[in-house]
Amino acid sequence: MISQVFILSSKGDHLIYKDFRGGAGNDIVSIFYEKVTALTGDQPPVVMNYKDIYFVHIRQGGLYWVATTTAGSSPFTITEFLNRLAALVKDYCGSLSEKSVQMNFALIYELLDEIVDYGYIQTTSSDVLKNFIQTEAVTSRPFSLFDLSNVGLFGAETQQSKVAPSSAATRPIQSSREQGGKSEIFVDVIERMTVVIGSNGLLMKADVEGEIRVKCYMPSCSEMRIGLNEEFSIGKSQLRGYGAAVRVDECSFHQAVRLDEFDSHRILRLCPSQGEQTVMQYQLSDDLPSALPFRLFPTIERDNGGRLLMYMKLRCDLPPKSAAINVCATIPVPKGSVSLSQELSSPDQSAELKPQSRAVVWQIARFAGGTQLSALFKLEVPSLSSASMLEVGPVGLSFELPKITATGLQIRFLRLSPIQPGPSQRWVRYVTHSDSYTIRI
Amino acid sequence: MCLCARLPSLVEYVEQPLTAGLRDRAACVRRVAVLGWAKLHNLQPSSEIDAAVVNELYSLLRDPDPVVMVNCLRALEEILKEEGGIAINKPITHHLLNRLKECDIWGQSEVLRVLQRYRPQSEDELFDILSLLDSFLVSPHPPVMAATLSLFLSVSSNLPAISLAALERVSGPLLAACGSGSREMRFAAVCHIQLLLRSVPGLLGPHYKRFFCGYAEPAYIKERKMQVLVELVNDENVAMILDELKGYCTDVNTDTAQAAISAIGRIGRSYSDRCLQILTGLLGLKQDHITSAVVQTMRDLVWVCPQCSDTVCLALDGCEETLQDIQGRQALLWLLGVYGERISTAPYTLEVLIDGVRSEASLGIKMELLTATMRLFLCRPAETQDMLGRLLHYCIEEETDMCVRDQALLYYRLLHCGIEKTREVLQGRRSDPSLGVLIGRPAKPVSQWARCFNTLEPLSQGAVEAESDSRGSPEHVTYNPKPNADLSDTLSCSHIEEVHSGSDSAMRCSDSSTNVLASSIAAPLSLSLSPAVSPEDFEHLWLQRQALHTERGAEKIEEVDCAWIEECVRCPAVLQCSPQSLQAAMQLVNIQTLAFTPQHMLPWRVYLYTHTQRSHSMDAPNTTLILGELLCTGEANQKSGVKKGTADSEAGAEGKEDQLVRKEMDATADRLRVSEDGQEEEEGIKVILNQQPKDDDALRQFLTILITVLNTLSSEKD
Q1: Is B214 on the interface with A (CB under 8 A)?
Q2: How does pLDDT run across B336-368, given as a tens digit for each residue?
Q3: Which of A202, A312, B324, B373 could bridge across to B288 with cysteines, CB 3.0–4.6 Å?
C-alpha cells in the first residue's frame, strides 16, 4: 500500500505530490528531503523512516521518486512500482528530466490517478492506460528538426536515413497519434558488461546482463515476430555445434511473449503495447564468446625526482570496423597528488586530474577496433612512498560499444503482422555498455 | 469521485451510487466502486458497513475482471480489519490460486500476500498449492518471486526441507535481481540474500563473483556486497575474494575502504595468515583512515584469534604517528595495554600520549589510556611507574570529567590493595576463545527471519551482524554468554541420549563413555593450543606415526609411548557444517583445526591437533600432544570385528616409547549397519587419533570432548 507518491528535483523542489490515503502532514516532503540530504555515507538511503512512515525512493533522471508506505510493505513491489512509474513518465513525456516533469505535471497527475487508487496499484500496462490518458505531452524539442534529419537532400536515399538518430526513441508515445504516418518500432538489444581483469592480465570475472527492449510507437499492432540467432542456446548443458553458437546461462521472458516457436526456430511472438517494455532478459557469466573489448598494459614507476610515472597502453580488441565511443578510464592515484602532466598519443584524447575523487580521468571520444592508444601521466605527489604505489588502481573503464553485443545475440528478422497499412519503420539497435569494467594493476 | 475530496458530509449521498457501481457493466467502474467502499469505511470508521455489502464484495471475488477481484481483497481487508481481515478459507484460496495467472504482477503479489494467512488442512493440499505456485517462485519479476517465497515459507513453516528447497530454487531469480539495472532493486535483493544466508550459508558459494562490487556502485551496495562475500568465503575462493577486497581497501570513499578492511578482518578469523599479511601491507600506506580501520580490525581479530597476536604486535610499530581519529587511537591503546610486554616501544608511545593528555579532548581516549598504562605497568613496571604516577596525578587532581577521575581513583585504590589484586582485576578477562562461536555462526532456522522477508525491515536496519563501531575495546562487547552455556548443556545430554538410543550392542559404548564422562569430572582435563604446531610439523609427525602404526599395528605393539585410536562416530550433519563453524566449535574447546576439505566433498577430512594438560596429576606426564583426523568416505564403514591390542616395540630414531592402541568400536560400526532406514547408513565419521606421549585417560577424555562437539554441531544442524 502506498500512502503518498512524490517527485522531487535534486535540489528539493516539489515537482509532483500526490496523497492517496490522506492523513499525512504537509511537511512530509520536506522531512524526506532533510533526511536524504543529511545521510552519512554508511547509511543505506533506499529506505528511511520517520515515526511509522517509511520512505522508499529511487533516483532516476536526476530526480527523487519517493513513495511513502508502512513497514510491512514489500520493498520489491514498491521499488518496482517506482521504476515502472518512471518508465511510464518517460514513455509519455519523451524523456526524464526536471524540465519535462515540470512541463507535463498535468499528464503525470493523470497517470498517477489511473495507476494508483487509494494507495493500491491498479495497472501499469500502457495498453490499458492509453484508453484513459488524454493529456498531450509537452516537449521542449521542436519536432521539425528531427523530421528533417530523416529526409535526404533532394529526397535522395542517404545513409543518414537508414540509421535512426539516437534521439528518435526519446519522444512521447502519444504524439504518434497526431503524426499520423509516423509509426515506428524500435527493438534494442542492450547488454551490460561486468568484467574484472586481474593484475596478471587474466580474466577474473565476466558477466553480461542483456535485455531486448521493444519500444513501440504504433497505435495498433496485432503481432510481432522477433527472430533471434538460430544457434541461440540456453544453459551450459547444450553441446555446441559448428560455428559460433550464441549461448546464455539464463533467460527470462516478458509474460506477454508467446514461446511456441521459440524452441524450434528461436522466434519470439508478442503483441507489443505502446511504449517501452523489456521482452527478454538474459545473462551470461564467465564464458564470453568474443575477446574482451579492452586490455590495459600499465607500467608504473617512480622517477628520481619523486614523481610518479604511469605509462598506460590501452588496446581495443574489437573487430576493426567497429569502434567504442565515450571511453573513459578512471585511474585512482595516490592521495595528495598535486598536479598532472600528460603525453597522449593522439589529439582526440584528454586527461585530467580530479583531486576530489583522487583519480586521473582519461577520456577517449572514439576508439577504433584493433588499435592501441598510449598515454604517459606524470604525477607530482609530494609525499610519495613505495607504499603509495598500492593506491594506484584498479582502473575502471566505462564505454559504449554501438552495434555490438558481447554475447553475439542478433536479431535475424522483425516482422509485423498484419502488414501495417501506412509507412512503418522498424529499427533494430545493438549496444553494449560497461556496467563495471575493472582492470587491476 | 467525491470520496477523494474526503468530505464526510457527502457520505450519505455516496452509498447509493457505490452500490450501483458494484453491479456496473464496465469493469473499470466496478474497480473504483469496490475500493470506494473501503474509502467510505475509513471516512466513517464508526458506522457499520452493511453486511449485505460485505457479502456482495465477497461474491465479487468471482468477478471476471482480475483487478476487481484483487480490489475486493484489498477492500475487504480494510473493512474487516477489526476481525482480522478477510476470511481466507479453502474455496477462496483455491479460487484465488486458480486465477492468479490472470492478474498482473501487482495483483499477484497482493494475492500471494493475503494468502499467507491460509493454513492448508492436509499435507496433500499443501503440496498441491506448492506445486501450483512453483512457477511463480522463479518469476522474473522480483515482487512476485519475493511474495511467493514468503508464502512458501509461511505455509511450510514446519517442513524445513521444503523451505530449504524453495530457498535454493529462488536463489537464481534473486541473483538476477542483484544484477538488475536499478540500484535500488539490487540493494533490496542483496539485503534479502543476507537473510537467506543466515539459514543456508553455503547457498550461493559458487556464485560469489556476482557479489564483486562494480566500481560505479554506490557505497551502500558495496558495503552489503562485502558482507555477503565474507559469508561466502571457503577454501577455494578465499584467495580470489581477498584479492578483490584488497582492491577496495584503497577506495576513494573512506566508508567503502573501512568496510573492506573490516571484511578482511572477519575473514581473518578463519584465514588469519593471509589476512594479516594484507592488513600489515595496508599499514604501509600511512593514511589515517586506513590505518585506523586496520588497527581496529586487528584489535577485533586478536580478541577472537589470540594466535595472531605476534604478527599484530610486530605490525603496530609506528602506527601512532598516522592515527588521527578517536576510534583508531583507542584501538591502538587497547592493543598496547594488552600486548605491551611484546611491543618494545609501547612505553614510549604511551609516554607521548600521557605528556599530551592535558590537550586531549576525548573522554574515551583518556579512559583507554588509563587502562592501558595500568596494564603495561603490571608487565613492565620499571619503565612505566613514573608515567603512571604522572597520569594518575593528573587525572585525579586536575581532570574535570568525573568518569575519568573516578576511573583513576579506582585504579589508585586498587594499587593500594597490592599488585596481585590489581593483576586479577585488570588481566582477568583475557580474550575468550568462546567468542569464536560468534565467528562461525551456526545456521539459523528459517523461521527466525521468515517473518521479515519481503518487508522493509532488512533494508532499513543497519548492517546485520556488524558490531557497533564506537567502542574502545573488545572487552566491552556485550556478548551474550548464553549460547556458550547452551552449548555445554546440549553437549553432554545429547551425547548420552544418543548413545542410549542406539541398539543394545551400543550399550558397551555408552557405558564406556559415561565412565569417561565421570572420570573427566574427577580429573579435569584442559586442552590448550600452545605451543602451536605448524602444518608442516603436523604433516611430518602424522606421516611418521601413521607409518609406525601400519607397520606394527598387526603385531600388537606395546610400551611405545604413543597411542593410536580409530573410532567411529555417528553425527551425520557434521558434513553439512561450514568449515568456519566447525573450526569455531573446535576452538571453543581449544582444539585447533589445521586443514579441511570443502563442505559436501567426499571423502571429507579434517585434520586437527591439541595439547592436553592435566593439572592435578603430578606423577603422570601431564602434557600430551594429540593429532587427529576426521574422515568420512561416504561409504558405509565396512570394518567389523574388534582389534584391540597393545604391542611392544622400541621406537626407533627418537628412542621414545610408543604404544599403539588400536581400538575399533564394533559397537559403533554395528550401529551404523543396524540403522535400517538406509539413509544414515553412510554417515559415520571415522576419528583417528594419535597421541604422544601416551596417556590413555587423557586420550579418552579428549575423545569424549571431540564427540560431544561433533554431536552438538550436528544437533544444531538438525
Answers
A1: yes
A2: 988 888 888 888 888 888 988 888 888 889 999
A3: B324
Please state the rounded mean pLDDT for residues B210-223. Answer: 88
Are A367 and A432 members of one domain?
no
CB contact under 8 A, B252 and A359: yes
At B46-96, the pLDDT tens digits run: 767 778 888 999 999 999 999 999 999 999 998 888 888 888 889 999 999
Closest CA to B198 of B221, B164, B147: B164
Same domain, A329 and A197: no
Do A392 and A415 fall within a single domain? no
Domain span including residue A188: 184-290+404-439
Residues, chain A, total?
Answer: 441
Say if residue A217 is in the same domain as residue A201.
yes
Closest CA of chain B from A205, distance in Å: 7
Are the Cβ atoms of A390 and B244 closer than 8 angstroms?
no
Spatial distance between the Cα atoms of B336 and B349, rounded to a whole number of angstroms: 9
Query: Do residue A192 and residue A87 come from a single domain?
Result: no
Least CB-CB distance to B219: which of A41, A77, A359? A41
- Which of B456, B459, B468, B470 should we substitute to test contact with A (largest number of A Cβ atoms within 10 Å)? B456
The total number of structural domains that make up chain A: 3
Q: What is the pLDDT of residue B51?
A: 84
Question: In terms of DSSP bridges, do strands A232-234 and A246-248 run parallel, antiparallel, or are they unpaired?
Answer: parallel
In terms of Cβ atoms closer than 10 Å to its own Cβ (0-12, 13-18, 19+), residue A277 is buried
Beta-carbon separation of B285 and A54 below 8 A: no
How far CA B161 is from CA of B139, B158, B192, B200, in Å, comes to: 21, 9, 20, 12
Gap from A45 CA to chain B (nearest CA, Å): 8
Same domain, A195 and A322: no
Is residue A38 in a domain? yes
Residue A429 lies in a domain: yes
Per residue in B162-207, pLDDT tens?
Answer: 888 889 889 888 998 988 888 899 999 999 999 888 888 878 888 8
B370 close contact with A: CB closer than 8 A = no
Please report which confidence band the pLDDT of residue B433 belongs to, taking 50, 70 and 90 as the band edges: low
Report the pLDDT averaged over residues A409-420.
82
B243 CB neighbours in chain A (<8 A) are 198, 204, 440
CB contact under 8 A, A46 and B459: yes
Q: Looking at the domain assignment, is residue A176 inside a domain? A: no
pLDDT at B584 over 80: no
Q: Pick the last residue of a domain from A130, A151, A174.
A: A130
Rounded to an integer, what distance in angstroms lies between the CA atom of residue B546 and that of residue B548? 5
Contact B214 A436 (CB under 8 A): yes
Q: How confident is the model at residue B204, as a pLDDT? A: 85
- More confident position, A256 or B560: A256
pTM: 0.74
The arrangement of strands across the sheet holding A411-417 comes to A267-270, A223-228, A411-417
d(CA A396, CA A278): 28
A141-169 average pLDDT score: 50
- The answer to whether the Cβ–Cβ distance between B455 and A72 falls below 8 Å is yes
Structural domain ending residue among the three candidates A84, A115, A130 = A130
Query: Strand, helix or coil at A196?
Result: strand
Q: Angle B123-137/B90-99 helices, nearest 10 degrees?
A: 20
| Residues of chain A positioned with their CB less than 8 A from the CB of B253 | 41
| SS3 state of residue B610 | strand
Cβ-defined contact of B214 to A435 (cutoff 8 Å): yes
CATH number at residue A393: 2.60.40.1170
Mean pLDDT for A40-55 is 77
pLDDT exceeds cutoff 90 at B236: no
CB B146 within 8 A of CB A74: yes
Domain identity same for A100 and A62: yes
For residue B182, the chain A residues in CB contact (below 8 A) are: 58, 79, 83
Q: Judge whether A32 lies within some domain.
A: yes
Same domain, yes or no: A117 and A46: yes
B177 and chain A in contact, CB less than 8 A: yes
> Which residue in this structure is represented by grid cell 557444517?
B577
Using CA coordinates, name the residue in chain B closest to A191: B181
Of the pLDDT bands very low, low, confident and very high (cuts 50, 70, 90), residue B291 is very high
